[in-house]
Design goal:
5 helices; alpha+beta; flat; DNA-binding; two-stranded antiparallel sheet; 3-stranded mixed beta sheet; homodimer
Amino acid sequence: MQCKRNFSAKREAIYRTLSSTDSHPTAEWIYEKLKVQIPDLSLGTVYRNLSVFKEAGLIKSVGVINGHERFDWDTSQHSHFVCSCCFRIIDIPKSRMFIDQNTLSHLENECDVHIQGHSITFYGLCGDCSKNSIESEDN
Amino acid sequence: MQCKRNFSAKREAIYRTLSSTDSHPTAEWIYEKLKVQIPDLSLGTVYRNLSVFKEAGLIKSVGVINGHERFDWDTSQHSHFVCSCCFRIIDIPKSRMFIDQNTLSHLENECDVHIQGHSITFYGLCGDCSKNSIESEDN
DNA sequence: TAATAATTAAGAACAGTTATCGTTTTGGAG
DNA sequence: CTCCAAAACGATAACTGTTCTTAATTATTA
């Protein structure tokens, strides 16, 4: 991959689809979304380009949630909340939970490691699932 | 599963193998380790019992690292370091990096979620891989 | 002992992802 | 524009970690 300006039409569409949502989608989701506009798109192409983007540092993986890798266009340091019920992923405001450089340095010494990054994931029930589980108790 | 005392011999062996290492192993690793002593052990049995333990809250999953689910006998709240090179997982001392209840409460309100837990993962190079990558530069 | 429940091995099935391969598209040079 | 090489592509097979099925075995209870 050269630079962003040289994206092929499909590559561009895949990147645009990912970067226009905050839902931290799967490859499949992006594929389904784009198939409407680009009927001859292949799922393999979505996977391949997501790998290309990831390798180029243009996107990040949130990790494998419920068996599906989830992607994030926002490569800046931020935390996520993952709903254990519907597997929705919600961004935690960036102002929160920042681990300072001093702590990282101490950790590196203490554990004999070289830290390049970190991720904080909260899990529990999202608002909707929380509400639903209360409603379904009313029987 | 009833209670820990009623473990079958193989279930017991699987739990013992996991709980006697800090390597956060995969199902495969436990299987290979036990196959020596228990030749008629099946990999499916290891997977099944790990699920049973997880469901019972006896063990935790560290998540899927490099395509393999990693398990941890230590269910208490603690953080991990994951080496991006050899995928070793190192426990971070429990004294470090805990997020207080007050912060969690604020987060729950701010994001409209119900937080049940969280995990902090640091990544980078472990001591060994860091050393090796420096050595291989000397060419 | 007989009936019942729990656990297991073996291997088939499954799902998400990656690799292969022949074709098409793209972008630069002449 | 035309040619060419490199990049990207679609289709689909292959791969891999995990789960499921089934029949057999083992443990428990009556």
